[in-house]
Write a structure and sequence with these properties.
It is found in: Cytoplasm. This protein is of the alpha/beta class. The protein is built from 18 helices and 25 strands. Bound molecules: 6-O-phosphono-alpha-D-glucopyranose.
Length: about 600
């Protein structure tokens, strides 16, 4: 995931830029760069492949200059390399950093090349630099030049542009990729995430979609998408960010549960247009490959396997593409038959899980169309060895029991499903509806977290139990599996998940008044079927704990406790209903006094077989 930092100050800004990049590094990157204006007309650019530390090491002497921009890149257009790293320049004066994807870059590139502009990278971003440079020849300042080129850009961008000939300002524009202005005293900053700027300011102005701003040391001018000047008040941040610090939270797991609305926002950033998804998020060749996909095989372990199982329901019902899902440790030792046009998808938080990696390596010789990794760690082996990759941007996950890695995987899979649907005649109205459902998801997750106190109370009823059953149907069956896994992992209570329709084929025999049964009941097409399953349990004296949509009309009584969740689009319900189950496990573990963040016998990343 790319990160942007910019600064304009009386002091030299290079070290502020480097520190900002370091704080964004966890989001995934393959290269980094900065450009500083050391004197009017003189742009100093340094870029390096690899970590921010390599960039920092490359600055051998103090780099003077009070205006600068910097970037950590996660490659989409063009391989990770120094020449593709940002900032991109035009004619030695204009420098640009950009997050997002310019969809019509090929057409713009052709136009600019025909006019003699030389391209020195394979990125989509470079067109912005040349467009601004061309416009700057006829416009009297940088702001006007940026205003003039914005209507030419299609796709998503958060961009910061400087002009060495005009070192008293930088210009920023936001559409689909967030940007925040950090307000200092006699100096100002900009970044893709406020945490990059916490060492220099606590005052932030969050730009809105379509905003363009001109920032100088003492002034911030903002105009909205219609070109009207707007006053966006600064807000004081109380955040304390440190990836290795759990802040106000008692455990990393709890912090990571609460990180989810923001993690999902990050996962969605620059990947959605108004009514479709930007499939370039999977890589430059994604479009070409996706057009050929007839079947998807997903391979993963643990929690990542559960997200794969949800995706199977989605792929077949929404994209009309058949899908098989398998645990990596099984798949790697089979002799699978690969159908023509099959895409192999691996899912992994760490990208280093031995079985998943071995499955990928084994499968490479089986005739798959291509391989795609959905992963949280940009520099991981899984990502490096796959043809395509989608970074989930969950941020560093420290708790062994995976939480935000899972929900952001679901987001990545949802975007994959819609991308494949776009090549397989998905109804445009349905597509737009699903994009809308993704956009409202972070707010729904925030509302769901307000149920924590109710769930904490509920946990008391589980703490002395030895077994628990989790029930779901359809795409909630894998969520029941994930809920059971969480409870097992951190509270050591034996938990099993069943597809509710399967109850009568065995597990009903287990039910008595000492067996809590957790039911996941969003308001979807299987609700009536699920209600019948609930009655089967009730008739045998089981105690039910039902997580339901208000409209599902479950009422609490002596044999049933109901927790109502906010309304959500049924498609996104698997993501939303995961959160109360994570909280339930967490609070049960707290009562039992187990080691929540490092449960016995388990490891975060299983790099051995
Ligand atoms: C371990 C972790 C799980 C994780 C699984 C797969 O078992 O404890 O939380 O789901 O590995 O890891 P991956 O990094 O491949 O998602």
């Amino acid at each position: 995931m790319c990160g942007i930092v910019g600064a304009i100050a009386q002091r030299d800004v290079a070290q502020i830029l480097i520190e900002g990049l370091r704080r964004l590094e966890y989001r995934g990157y393959d290269s980094a760069g900065l450009a500083v204006v050391s004197e009017p007309g003189r742009l100093n650019r340094i870029r390096r492949l690899g970590k921010v530390q390599s960039l920092s090491d490359a600055i051998l002497a103090p780099l003077p200059g009070g205006l600068g921009i910097a970037h950590t890149r996660w490659a989409t257009h063009g391989e990770p390399s120094e020449r593709n790293a940002h900032p991109h320049e035009s004619s030695g004066n204009i420098a640009v950093v950009h997050n997002g994807i310019i969809e019509n870059y090929a057409e713009l590139k052709e136009e600019l090349a025909a006019e003699g502009y030389q391209f020195t990278s394979d990125t989509d971003t470079e067109v912005i630099a040349h467009l601004v440079h061309r416009e700057r020849q006829s416009q009297d300042n940088l702001l006007n030049a940026v205003r003039a080129i914005i209507p030419r850009l299609r796709g998503a961008y958060g961009t910061v542009i400087i002009d060495a000939e005009q070192p008293e300002t930088m210009v920023v524009a936001r559409s689909g990729s967030p940007l925040v202005i950090g307000v200092g005293i006699g100096e100002n900053f900009v970044a893709s995430d406020s945490l990059a700027l916490l060492p220099v300011t606590r005052q932030f102005i969050y730009l809105e979609e379509g905003d363009i701003a001109q920032i100088s040391r003492s002034d911030i001018y903002i105009e909205d998408a219609s070109g009207n000047q707007v006053d966006r008040p600064a807000q004081e941040s109380t955040a304390s960010y440190d990836a290795g610090n759990k802040g106000e939270y008692r455990h990393f797991m709890l912090k990571e549960i609460y990180d989810q609305p923001q993690a999902v926002r990050n996962a969605l950033e620059s990947r959605l247009a108004d009514d479709h998804v930007l499939e370039q998020a999977f890589g430059t060749q994604a479009s070409e490959i996706f057009a050929e996909v007839k079947h998807v095989q997903i391979v993963a372990c643990g929690t990542s396997y559960h997200s794969a199982m949800v995706a199977r329901y989605w792929l077949e019902s929404l994209a009309g593409i058949s899908c098989s899902v398998e645990i990596a440790s099984e798949y790697r030792y089979r002799k699978p038959v690969v159908l023509p046009g099959s895409l192999l998808v691996t899912i992994s938080q760490s990208g280093e899980t031995a079985d998943t990696l071995a499955a990928l390596r084994m499968a490479r010789h089986l005739g798959y169309l291509a391989t795609l990794a959905i992963c949280n760690v940009g520099a991981s082996s899984l990502v490096r060895e796959s043809d395509l990759a989608f970074m989930t941007r969950a941020g560093v996950e420290i708790g062994v029991a995976s939480t935000k890695a899972f929900t952001t995987q679901l987001v990545g899979l949802a975007i994959l499903v819609l991308s494949l649907g776009q090549h397989n005649n998905i109804n445009p109205l349905l597509l737009a509806e699903m994009v809308g459902a993704l956009k409202t998801l972070p707010d729904e997750l925030e509302q769901t977290l307000t149920l924590a106190a109710d769930i904490e109370k509920l946990a008391e009823e589980f703490a002395d139990k030895h077994h628990t059953l989790f029930l779901g149907r359809g795409d909630q069956y894998p969520i029941a599996m994930e809920g059971a896994l969480k409870l097992k992992e951190i509270s050591y209570i034996h938990a099993e998940a069943y597809a509710a329709g399967e109850l009568k084929h065995g597990p009903l025999a287990l039910i008595d008044d000492d067996m809590p049964i957790v039911v996941i009941a969003p308001n979807n097409e299987l609700l009536e079927k699920l209600k019948s399953n609930v009655e089967e349990v009730r008739a045998r004296g089981g105690i039910l704990y039902v997580f339901a949509d208000k409209d599902a009309q479950f009422e609490s009584d002596e044999s049933m406790r109901v927790i109502n969740l906010p309304h959500t689009h049924p498609w996104m319900a698997p993501v939303v209903y995961t959160l109360p189950l994570q909280l339930l496990s967490y609070y049960v573990a707290i009562i039992k006094g187990t080691d929540v963040d490092q449960p016995r016998n388990l490891a975060k990343s299983v790099t051995v077989e």
